[in-house]
Amino acid sequence: MNIVLDTNVLVSAAWSPGRNASDILNAAFARRFTVCYDYRILEEYDRVLRYPKLKFSESEISAILDPLIKNGLSVVAEPLPDVSFERDDTDRKFYEVAKFCRAVLVTGNLVHYPSDPDIMSPAEFCRKYL
Known about the structure:
This protein is α/β, with parallel strands linked by helices.
């Protein structure tokens, strides 16, 4: 099964071991799911995880990103210009990759995305798939 992880899921997983986001990330590391991404998503992951206020070490960042890149699926998604992202257009990339890969998009910011049964919170994803 393909999934796309919003950046907030990675941050939550690193901050809160043993909670829903970390369970999802660990399942992806165990190859229960394939994380789909494109260069825009990787750039955001890297940029956000390096925010000084998050205080993640280089080894912590590598422990998250290296397995995602190695075991994930890198794609070049089709643009979806007809979909409205009124709250935050920077979330468009996650939606485009999810649709391109027929993946479930997991996010802590459901209100940023169009209503879609394949977009779910970490808690909902865990109830349904873990």
